[in-house]
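tool=predict chain=A
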Amino acid sequence: MTVSDTAAPPESPPPGGQRRRGLPIPSFESMRHREFRLYWVSTALVFFEQGMANVALGWFVLELTDSAAWVSAVVAARGIPMFLLTVPAGVIADRWDRRMMLIITQSLAALAALVFAALVWSGEVTAPIAFGFALVLGSSTAFGLPTRQAIIPMLVPREELMNAIVTGAMARTSSMLIGPALAGVLIAVGGAELSFAVQAVFMVLSTFMLIPLRSASRRVSGVSGVSGVSGEADGGQPVRRRSMFGDFREAWGFLRAEPALLVIIALMVNTGLFMIGPMQSLVPFLIRDELGGGPDSFGLVLSAMALGTLTTSTFLTSMGGMKNKGGFFAMALIGGSICFGSIALSPWLGMAIFFFYVWGAFGGFFQAMSQTLLQTHTPDEMMGRVMGVSTLASMGTMPLGAIIAGVMATVLDAQSAVVISAVICLTFAISALIGAPRFRRLR
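tool=predict ok
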C-alpha cells in the first residue's frame, strides 16, 4: 500500500480536538504522557540554546570580522555537518539507543560552548576558531535533530502523533521566542562570552531531562531484518546484518516508491537553499545596513518570527483530522516566500518585524505539516533514516544556500540576494501545488 492509497482516509475527529463554530480549540493531548512531557522540556531547552546561538555566534563573527564572507562561512560551518552527517545519524538512530545518542551529542555541545565562552572571555578567539566551534555545534545538531524527531512516535500513540509533533514544535518556537532576545541582552550586558556560557547551562539541563526516557531507549525491531537482539531474527535464527549503506538504500527505496513524500523532501530542499540559508547569513546585514538596528534588533525580529510560529502551532494542535495537508503545506511555503521578500524591501524596522511575524506563522504550518506527513506515512523501523533525509533536505542544504546567498550579496547586495531567493522559493512552491495532485491531497 502506498501513500497515495491512504491519502484520503475517512475523516475522524482528532484525539482530544474540539471545535466551536468552526474554530479550532487548542488541545495538548500528548502532554498527558509523562515521558513526552520530559521530552518537551528537553526540547525546549535545546532549542533555547540554538535560538541564542543564532544571534550570539552570527553577531559575534560580524563584529569580529565585519565580513559577509566570514559570517556566511560560519553559518555554512554549522550546516556542513547537517549535510554530511544527518543521514548516517538517521541510520544509527534506527540501530542504536536513541536516548543515549542525544545524551552524548548534547554533552559534547555543552562542553564546546563552555570552552568557547572561556576563549571569548580571554580574547583569544579568531575567525577560524569560531568556524571550528560552529562545526562542533552543527555536528551535535546533525546527530541530535533526526534522532529527536524519531523519538516522538516512541512516546505517544500513533493517533496522537500530529498533536505531539505540533506540541513539540511549540517547545522549539517558545524557546526561540525568548532565546534570541535573551542573547541580545546578554551580549549587551556581559559580552558574547556570557551568552555562550548560558547556552552551555541549557544544554546540560536538557540532557538531564532525557535520562528518564526509558521508552526512547528501546531498539526498533525490524531494522535491517534484525530484532532488538543483535544478530538474531525475530524467529531466533542468525541473520547477516546489512551495512549502513544497505540500510540507507532500503529507506531511499521506500521514499522512491512514495512520490508524494518525495515532493515534500524536494520542497524542504528548496527551503533550505533559498530561505533558511539566506536568512541565516544575510538577515544580520539587512538589520544593520538597511534598517539601522543592532544585536537587540536582530534578536527582536527573530523573536517576532518565533511568536508567529507559536501562534500557528497553538491552533494546529486540534487539527489532526484536516484534509489536504499537502496542499496547505505548499500554500504555507508560498506565503512564507512572499513574506521573506517583503522583509528585504521593508523601509523601516517596524514593518520588517511585522513581516517576520507573518513569515513565522507560515513557517509554523510548514514545519508541522512536513513532519506530520512524513512521520504519519513512515514505518517505525525506518523513522530514523527518513528523519535523517528530511533533516538533510531542510538543514543540510543550508550551508550551500548560505554560500549562494553570500556570493549574490557580494556581487549585488544583501537586499537583492534575499528578493531573488524568495522568488525562486515561490516558483518551486507554486509548481508543486499545481503539478502534484497526490501530494496536494495528502492527509
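DSSP finds 15 helices and two strands in the chain. The first helix runs from residue 34 to 65.
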